[in-house]
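Memo to structure team: turn this sequence into structure tokens by end of day. - J.P.
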Amino acid sequence: MTDLSQQNLHDDNGHFAFGKNWASYAELIGEPEILEAERGLRRLLPVDTLSGKRFLDIGCGSGLHSLAALRLGASEVLAVDIDAVSVATTRVVLNHHAPNTHYRLQQMCVFELDPERYTRFDVVYSWGVLHHTGDLERALQTAAALVAPDGLFVFALYRNTWMCWFWKAEKRFYAHTKPWIQRFIRIAYIGLYRVGFRMTGRQFKDYVRNYKNKRGMDFYHDVHDWLGGYPYQSISPADVAAAMSEAGLVRVKSFVQRGRLFGKPTGLFGSSCDEYVYARPPTSVLVKTLCVG
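Reply from structure team:
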């Protein structure tokens, strides 16, 4: 059973205001953030995979990773997001940092992406987005259908944890409460984060300072995104593998969390994203070379 009615899956009513958060983050985007975003893409993709390729960014957010794809040689980028503010922010970011490249922007949800209308893409990218649609299984199948033969589906999803029930309730409340209450929750959450670092002998300030190493992101914007990210679903690697097999895709590589309690992460501070790269056969020489296990 999903969190939202089928009608609401196609608009952002009931969703957290992701766009406002990414518009604020976009003001921080500079060369260091762009270089980290490029490095994050290279980590997931084979060398030169984007050169001359069509790239679909589902849930473009701030536009940072559409920008990284263009800088890495993508011949065309289609960036889509259900949030009008995210689309506007992406337009500003790309106009400023990649003015002479080929890209299109469109406000729409993943369920409106018809491969017959948009054809298929060499790389379909969706990092930390599909678990916010209200129907993760359907979103995965829809996105996978847009991958061209020999193309790649690159995505990240919240890992199922023991605390998912709590975070689902927390996010529902946070996304619809007043800004001053949201701020109080953020302060409490960050305070607990500090305690956790202190107990393990790590420096919280160093973690925050170096946070841009995570795909060019910003800690405080990510905290707001995490606490408010509703709708919310999570999934295990085994269920991802089953969904991709049904979609006709094969695994290239993945980066997943190790379970700490009966094979599942606790999720005390959140459900971190597992990252996946799947390919649609016939498999190219590059994918054969990189395929693990």
